[in-house]
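job 3f2a | input accepted
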Amino acid sequence: MRTGSKGAQLQEILESYVDELEPGTPLPSERELAERFGVARMTVRGQLERLVHRGLVYRQPGRGTFVAERMLAHTERLTSFTEDMRARGLVPGARLLATETIRAGRALAARLEVSQGSQVVRVRRVRTADDVPMAVEQTHLPARRFPGLAKRDLATGSLYDVLLTAYDVRLGDAVHRVTVVSLGPDEAKLLAAGPGQPAFRIERTARDTDGVVVEYASSVYRGDRYELLMHARR
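job 3f2a | predicted structure (234 res):
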């Protein structure tokens, strides 16, 4: 390796190396990697830290560095969590935290494009993939359009399937707003993650094929298991 580009070259090599290993596989020690690639241990340590921050590997004090679970891509397509997980060969699941009917405040009414004070069904769930907590999801839907929704079994399956089969509502498009946040104590506990861990907050306003707002959802996804994938076209 050329001296001036050792770090960048090592990063590329380590990424390719990690990509070929199964999740949970231990990496060689810093000393072994330094000897193998002819670089200083500090260089190896710095590049491993980059991989940790990107969620490609994780450290266990006293044990070493291990390959992390593959990240799941959150794409720009309008699909349900259930559809996303099934497309990746994972078993989707949900743990229902609460289903309730509330009155829409000014901000929520504006997002749903309903009158302030209108009744809104709020559904809060922990979404899982192969029984691993992935996201805390809070969805709001106009109660007037979906009578009886609060009494339906929403603990499993896709909410979008319920909207289609029970209410003949077909989703057309959605606007997503993504921000990076830190997990609070309650969210971290629900997601089996550490407080302060980076996460994505994804707010979604979805409309039906007639352009009418169907739902407003705010979900927190584990930052160590998700990445955002966007297709830009000029």
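job 3f2a | The radius of gyration is 22 Å.
job 3f2a | closed
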